[in-house]
Amino acid sequence: MDRITSFGADSLESALGDNRVFTENISSLYQKKEIKMGFDQYHEPPEELSQEMRTFARMITSLIEEAEAIGWYEQRMSLEKDKEAKAIMANAQKEEFKHFGMNLEFLLRRNKNWRTELQSILFTTGDIVKQGEAAEKKVD
Ligand SMILES: [Fe+2]
């Protein structure tokens, strides 16, 4: 506060005026959910969440982003006519598989019920819905 008063409140007000209006508009739009901020992965007030929970939330966001990237490459490859370009996209998509897998494993190591359910669903054959229902019973 000393710094502000020595600078002069009037000149500071003038210097910040436009920025303050901009900040208030952004804040208002954010509250009305008209824009998204980089911390949208939090569904609860971040300051009330533990560090572990914030990491969990960030990893969930990463998992979503990796899944989206896999889907985007899949779409691009389905349309791409140039074989060399398509091969590069396929190579890039493999990276996203790895990223998705690492993110998922991280999350499963921190949520026992999720891990238990997926152990009965993933890498199996047969009726997926039946296995999903059986998996759910394991954690009930
Ligand atoms: Fe990735």
Integer average pLDDT:
85
User: Strand-and-helix sequence, N→C?
Assistant: HHHHHH
**DSSP strand (E) fraction?**
under 5%
The biggest beta sheet, please?
none
Number of helical runs? 6
Radius of gyration: 24 Å
User: How widely separated are the two ends?
Assistant: 56 Å
Count of spatially separate domains: 2
Secondary structure: number of strands: 0
Helical content, roughly? over 70%
What general outline do the C-alpha atoms trace? flat
Low-confidence stretches: 1-7
Ligands and ions found:
fe (ii) ion
Description:
The protein has 140 residues and is an all-alpha fold. The protein folds into two domains: 37 residues; 101 residues, no CATH class. The N terminus is likely disordered. The site of fe (ii) ion has 5 residues, from helix 3 and helix 4.
Topology at a glance:
Layout: H1 2-7, H2 9-31, H3 51-79, H4 83-108, H5 112-121, H6 128-139
Helix pairs in contact: 3-4, 5-6
The protein binds fe (ii) ion.
